[in-house]
Design a protein that fits this description.
Number of helices: 10
Radius of gyration: 22 Å
Number of strands: 26
Shape: globular
Strand content: 25-35%
């Protein structure tokens, strides 16, 4: 590695963690972080939860105090956006016109919400939740609303639905597929979540698609569905997934697909450029194919992996993926990637709201989904990190199975 700076494009969780990890690993050369938003790097998970209720204020989201950057000699160029990478000159051009030379470049450009493409999608009151500004807009809108429509039964939409019901709004969730969170979790967990939301009074409509939004004086009021039904809506939250921000990488002729393509050391097709976090598509030992993950854990672990590589401690990225969500008073934790499982075994009691779904593929444990069973989650993470060898579906199916006693010797 030369003597020039490490430039990090992005100012989210992955970017900040990479800058901090470089210093923690002893990197003494300049570190420059470039972010389009003017706010300091902040935590996004609370945006769809406690922030909407007002229990968390903006400054409580900051991942580090403002003094951190000066203390760590990290240059934070916030409110400016990277618009071009000149790989021949090892230089990034910003929207302001400034040019920054790099020795190593880390792309942490994140992702953006998919937008609705139906008539009325641009009406006031239609919100896609991603940034702090989005969350502030939604928080204010919920305060004056009576009816909330959530389009998409994924993580963000269901978390907002849960919060909105707690605030007393009438809530409808419209999901185009046959299951909530159908691309991410097992049928068992999906059905349990649907039961929880319905029990709290949320109307959950499956196999329904939004076809149009109608408004009055520019503000959304009614949603039309593909079966002809009309749903009242003062606020519409769009939660139909995200797209990776790959334009900058593509402009620089780096290999992209569903994300910036990286190898197991998180290097792009240019060995001096890395990509981490939501925007990176990487090979994982925990999945059958390259994957792109949208989670704080993945962002943090990949940031630390790259920082280690840039300070002479290169190692492949092999972290066990894990996720969590809180909905309707239930804490749901997922370890591993379970979407391609071919068998599940439930341990615990869904009726009592405390259970885990152990997911297997080809006879091998690939992950566990736990509802209010944190011990199962933590032990599964350790099992997966160690290769998950030995635990079979028939073991879990035996009466009295308790993963805390597996294996016979404490892990």
């Amino acid at each position: 590695m030369g003597t020039g700076p490490v430039v990090i494009v992005g100012a989210g969780h992955a970017a900040l963690e990479a800058a901090a990890a470089l210093r923690a690993e002893g990197h003494t050369r300049p570190v420059i972080l470039v972010g389009a938003e003017t706010a300091p790097p902040y935590a996004r998970p609370p945006l769809s939860k406690d922030y909407l209720t007002g229990r968390i204020r903006p400054h409580e989201l900051w991942l580090r105090p403002r003094s951190f950057f000066a203390e760590q000699h990290i240059t934070a160029m916030l409110g400016d956006r990277a618009v071009e990478i000149d790989r021949d000159a090892s230089r990034v051009r910003l929207a302001s016109g400034e040019r920054i030379t790099y020795d190593r470049l880390i792309l942490a450009t994140g992702s953006r919400p998919r937008r609705l493409s139906v008539p009325g999608a641009d009406l006031e009151g239609v919100v896609a939740l991603r940034s702090l500004a989005d969350a502030e807009e939604l928080r204010c809108a919920l305060r004056d609303a009576g009816d909330l429509l959530v389009v998409g039964g994924g993580f963000i939409g269901l978390e907002v639905a849960s919060v909105a019901r707690g605030l007393g709004l009438r809530v409808t969730v419209v999901e185009s597929g046959p299951h909530l969170m159908g691309r991410s979790v097992s049928r068992t967990l999906s059905a349990h979540l649907a039961t929880l939301h319905r029990a709290e009074g949320t109307r959950v409509l499956l196999n329904r698609e939004l076809v149009a939004l109608r408004g009055e004086r520019g503000h959304v009021r009614v949603a039309e569905l593909n079966n002809g039904a009309r749903v009242a809506a003062d606020v519409v939250v769009v939660g139909i997934g995200v797209l990776p921000n790959t334009a900058l990488a593509a402009q620089a002729d780096l290999t992209t697909g569903d994300g910036v393509i990286v190898d197991r050391w998180l290097r792009t097709s240019d060995r001096s450029v890395y990509a981490i976090g939501d925007c990176a598509r990487f090979p994982s030992p925990h999945t059958a194919r390259p994957v792109r993950l949208e989670s704080v854990q993945n962002a943090s672990d990949q940031a630390r992996c790259v920082a280690a590589a840039l300070t002479g401690h290169r190692r492949p990225y092999i972290s066990v993926p894990w996720f969590w969500t809180e909905q309707c008073g239930a804490r749901v934790q997922m370890a591993g990637i379970t979407r391609d499982h071919d068998r599940t075994v439930v341990s615990g009691s869904p009726a009592e709201g405390r259970f885990s779904v152990f997911c297997f593929r080809g006879g091998r444990l690939v992950g566990t989904e736990s509802v209010n069973r944190s011990a199962d989650h933590m032990i599964t993470r350790r099992l997966l990190a160690n290769g998950a060898a030995g635990l079979a579906a028939d073991d879990v199916a035996r009466p009295g199975f308790d993963i805390r006693r597996w294996p016979a010797q404490p892990i």
